[in-house]
Each structure stands twice: as structure tokens, then as C-alpha cells.
Design goal:
About 40% of the residues lie in helices and about 25% in strands. It has 9 helices and 10 strands. Helix 6 links the parallel strand 7 and strand 8. The radius of gyration is 18 Å and the shape is globular. It starts with 5 loop residues before the first strand and ends with a helix.
């Protein structure tokens, strides 16, 4: 039986008096694509940030390849090399070219130039002619693809994506989703918070519907989208799919 790449047990997280995650249990297998769906404020983004330690959990375990990285005092620096995360805001340095943005972390953290490998990533994702451009010279879709390349340049085993198409004009969404399709074909382990229901239905191995800080329902895409068991899931899907 294949061991989980990520395993969450009883994860809770509060901000002040507001509890955002209520005892989350979740397993992600190597090579699996899991899509988190749900209304804004349901806890999707916080859950992703807890997965790589950007937000410390209040209680529970976050196991990466069997090791609990949520233990107090655990050194998260090497963990974040193994779990890349891309946000809805591109967070590119405006005074650096696309190539410089991508090359910075491998040089500073890994101590390597990796020029050929990085240029190959730009080529693969259709940005070879844009490496020398600054962020304000790129479209939103191009900037988001640079952000994905920047995360991939660290050679992660797992990728987390937090609503990475939500800040894009509708005509630019497709080019970013194409990148995710390629990563899925590569067998990259991925967890995505997304509002792109068609994409989740087409490509996810498993869909988790989050509601008020819990995973209210999960299962294969066809089961969730065609025959959801919970009334709240049906209500949410009817509102976003109509």
C-alpha cells in the first residue's frame, strides 16, 4: 500500500477567537491531485498554508512522508523546498526580470545557478521569449506562470496552489490551467484551492468540499459533482454551476 505524501490529523487553527479549521483529517497520496472547493472563508487557503508551515497549527499533526512537521521547533526551511506554494497574487519582485525572479531562490537557498534547468522551464511553459522582461511588461497570465516556474525551480515534490486563477482576466485563465495539466501529467503531487469547477471535475483525482472549517464531503469528482451526498454540497454546487 502506498504511503501518503501528506497526512493531516485533527488539524485545528484559530485566529484570535475565530476558529478557522476544526479538526481537519486529510490524506494526499504521491502523484495525486486534490482540489479543495467551497465558498470564500471556508478555510481552504488557511489549510494550504498549514500544510507547509506558513501558518502554525494550534493542534493536530501535519505529516510529510510520515514526519510530523507541525511539531514545535521543527526546522521548516528544508520542508519548504519540498512543498512549493503559489498564491493568487504573483508576488514577483518588480525590479527583477522574470529570469532573475526565478533564479533568486535556487541561488540563495540551494547554492546553484541552475541556468539551463530554469531556461528549460521557461521554454516548457511557453515563456522562453519573456525571460528578460520585467513583471509590468507581462500579462497577468504570464506573471502567474512565472510564479509557478519560480516554485518549480526549487524542485519540490509537492505543489500547493491557492486560487491561482482568481486574479486573472477570464481569457488568461486557460493558459495557467494548461500548466497545471502538464504538472498532473508529470505525476506531481498537488493540492489546489480553486473556483474552477470544470477544471476540478476534469482533472482532480479527489475533490474535497470545505464548509465552515471542515471537510464536509470528499470523493471522486464524478461523485461530488453528479451525486453529492450532503445537502450543503448540493446547495453550494447549485449556486456556482447555474
Amino acid at each position: 500500500m502506498q504511503e501518503p505524501r501528506l497526512e493531516l490529523r485533527g488539524v485545528t487553527k484559530s485566529f484570535g477567537e475565530a476558529t478557522v479549521l476544526h479538526g481537519i483529517d486529510m490524506t494526499v497520496k504521491p502523484g495525486e491531485m486534490v482540489c479543495l472547493i467551497g465558498a470564500s472563508g471556508s478555510g481552504k487557503s488557511t489549510l494550504l498554508r498549514c500544510m507547509n508551515g506558513l501558518e502554525p497549527v494550534d493542534n493536530g499533526e501535519v505529516r510529510l512522508d510520515g514526519v510530523d512537521i507541525a511539531e514545535p521547533g521543527f526546522d521548516l526551511a528544508p520542508i519548504r523546498q519540498r512543498i512549493g506554494i503559489v498564491f493568487q497574487s504573483f508576488n514577483l519582485f518588480p525590479h527583477m526580470t522574470a529570469l532573475e525572479n526565478v533564479a533568486l531562490a535556487p541561488r540563495r537557498v540551494l547554492g546553484e545557478t541552475a541556468q539551463n534547468r530554469i531556461e528549460a522551464l521557461f521554454e516548457r511553459f511557453g515563456l522562453a521569449t519573456h525571460m528578460g522582461k520585467y513583471p509590468d511588461q507581462l500579462s497577468g497570465g504570464q506573471q502567474q506562470r512565472v510564479a509557478v516556474i519560480r516554485a518549480l525551480a526549487m524542485r519540490p515534490q509537492t505543489m500547493l496552489f491557492d486560487e491561482i486563477t482568481s486574479a486573472l482576466d477570464p481569457e488568461l485563465v486557460g493558459e495557467v490551467l494548461d500548466v497545471l495539466r502538464q504538472l498532473r501529467d508529470d505525476g506531481m503531487t498537488m493540492v489546489l484551492a480553486t473556483h474552477e469547477m470544470g477544471f476540478a471535475r476534469e482533472l482532480a483525482d479527489r475533490v474535497c468540499f470545505m464548509d465552515q472549517g471542515v471537510i464536509a464531503e470528499e470523493g471522486p469528482p464524478e461523485a461530488i459533482f453528479s451525486a453529492p451526498a450532503k445537502a450543503r454540497t448540493r446547495q453550494f454546487l447549485s449556486s456556482v454551476l447555474r
